[in-house]
Design goal:
By secondary structure, this protein is mainly alpha-helical. About 75% of the residues lie in helices and about 5% in strands. The chain has a 3-stranded mixed β-sheet with strand order 2-1-3. The longest helix has about 35 residues.
Length: about 300
């Protein structure tokens, strides 16, 4: 009944649904989502790279946010699409651990990139006179390095914790990807320590950035309320609007998934929650920043104008 961890060579991903009539429609739906995600995020990366007036700290972090969104969507969606068109979506044990590692790495990195963007907005609005000194290229690179170090550390902790488990004969993962909680359900031994690792790492990966974002925006709001000009207040709020929307979507769905015990949140409901922040949020991010950002619109017009002129 029990197979040692080393002898389990593969898992079967159950997918999003087992209803045959929904497989093909869902395949084309999520293929469409993936195409929009690729075009949107790679388009934003290209746009920022080609426009010198977008080479500022804010767009430096937005560049990395789009790159992360593209990468972790690519980590999840292609394998998910396979489950809609194959009888059994098999993934090797090593492949499952690899997917889990990169998924955790990119999600935790995104969490800290969003907090770095909040800090950037705080400095821009609350300390505009020293903005270029405070957010110098060296500081931005140091912040980005910290982002990826936290992402790597969290991913190593999660992956090491799951890789140490002994799995039972049942190797069907009740999910469309190798996620932490569904894999914990397959374990034969006690998962108390592993669940504690999940809670601690997720609390740091979500808690620290949320505290940073909350403090940054509390100071931003306090500064904006002291601006006497209505136009000045409106302009200050508009620079933060896109970021606030993205933060709410990402942290809301991620916290709902991981900061509740598995007994309280059924896995079927967890699938929907993880679907939102792994697929929907990366697709919406470039749209939110493009449609609500005048600098991006101006940069896009310049690029299109060059193409037309050529």
């Amino acid at each position: 009944m029990v197979a040692e961890n080393s002898s389990l060579t593969e898992f079967i991903l159950a997918g999003l649904t087992d209803q045959p009539g929904l497989q093909i429609p869902l395949y084309f739906l999520f293929l469409g989502f993936y195409m929009v995600t690729m075009v949107g995020n790679l388009g934003l990366v290209t746009l920022i790279g080609l426009n010198s007036h977008l080479h500022t700290p804010m767009y430096f972090f937005l560049f990395n946010l789009s790159l992360i969104d593209f990468c972790y969507s690519t980590t999840i969606i292609p394998k998910m699409l396979k489950s809609f068109v194959s009888k059994q979506n098999i993934i090797l044990h090593a492949g499952c651990m690899t997917q889990l590692f990169f998924f955790c790495f990119f999600v935790i990195s995104e969490s800290f990139v969003l907090s770095a963007m909040a800090y950037d907005r705080y400095v821009a609005i609350c300390k505009p006179l020293v903005y270029m000194v405070t957010m110098s290229p060296e500081v931005c690179l140091l912040l980005l390095l910290s982002v990826y170090v936290m992402g790597f550390s969290g991913a190593m902790a999660h992956t090491g914790s799951i890789a140490s488990l002994t799995f039972c004969a049942n190797n069907v993962v009740n999910h469309f990807m190798c996620d932490i909680l569904p894999l914990l359900e397959l374990s034969c031994n006690s998962t108390y320590v592993n669940e504690l690792v999940v809670f601690v790492v997720v609390s740091i990966g979500i808690g620290m950035p949320i505290v940073t974002i909350f403090i940054s925006y509390a100071l931003i709001v306090s500064t904006i309320l002291n601006i006497h000009s209505t136009e000045g207040r409106s302009k200050a709020f508009s620079t933060c609007g896109s970021h606030i929307i993205v933060v709410s979507l990402f942290y809301g769905s991620a916290a709902f998934m991981y900061l509740k015990p598995p007994s309280i949140l059924p896995l079927e409901q967890g699938k929907v929650s993880s679907l939102f922040y792994t697929i929907v949020v990366p697709m919406l991010n470039p749209l939110i920043y493009s449609l609500r950002n005048n600098d991006v619109k101006i940069g896009l017009r310049k690029i299109l104008g060059r193409k037309i002129f050529s």
